[in-house]
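Risk register update: the risk of archive-format incompatibility is retired. Evidence:
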Amino acid sequence: MAGVEIAVDGLTKSFGAQRIWQDVSLTLPRGEVSVLLGPSGTGKSVFLKSLIGLLRPEEGSIMIDGTDILTCTAKELYEIRKMFGVLFQDGALFGSMNLYDNVAFPLREHTAKSESEVRKVVMAKLDMVGLTGSEDKLPGEISGGMRKRAGLARALVLDPQIVLCDEPDSGLDPVRTAYLSQQLIDINAETDATILIVTHNIQLARTVPDNMGMLFRKELVMFGPREVLLTSDEPVVEQFLNGRRIGPIGMSEEKDSAQMSQEQAMVEAGHSDGGAPEDVRGVVPQLEPTPGRPIRTAVARRQARVEEIMHTLPPSAQAAVSESLRSEGRHSALTPA
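Archived output:
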């Protein structure tokens, strides 16, 4: 079942007097993989919970398959939620159930499938995430990475049109994160689901998504094709992608000008800023499906969509898009500005 578009417009969310973010507008294209970045505490997880209706923003709209979930009835929201699969940070598995029963739970709760049908689906999803043979183990008997993969299998068991992943790499070592990144691309290739990933992992952010966005200072700094953020000279984006101290982001999210000037002077005097040894700005190749998996149908749709909006992109992003199209054997009718 192919993914659906999610159109967010003018979204504002507060908890009491504390504003989390305001006037957030973006569109998650159907069937594509998107990533949302931002420092800790900027409300990325709040945004995910708003998309599924677990939290209710005060202003704006969230259109999913033609329905605004902020104004729809409880019955309509229940039906919309069936489109979602959610991978929570800790996997959110039931500790008293083995992995098989954890993955089977949504099927038993929301479908009338027989146990033989349930078993067929569950084993297929466990195989998809590399957990065949572990179905009888309890969550407490396996590693954090395996729990994360089991949570992903459960998120996929109802064949959702939309998959939300809240920091899927948290607690994973770089090798397991690389495997998880590949799995997300393979899942998109097989299901054509619309996927949104919240992450702090820069390698995942640079290699997995079709689109990228970033939250900072209670606003969406930017959102668009991956080439836009990966070539951006926006200070907060550059700082975040390079993992450096120098820039607008501080320990309390935001720095004042005096602190920024002091840190810049230290760097000019030869002190390391603790980030990447080289500027990582630039577009790296996107992960492709594992050989033997289906071709990602999202790629052709994305190419056509990005060509249409090419003239609205910054010159550096236009050049990166044109280069990627050439490398994929497709030539844009538009040239970089």
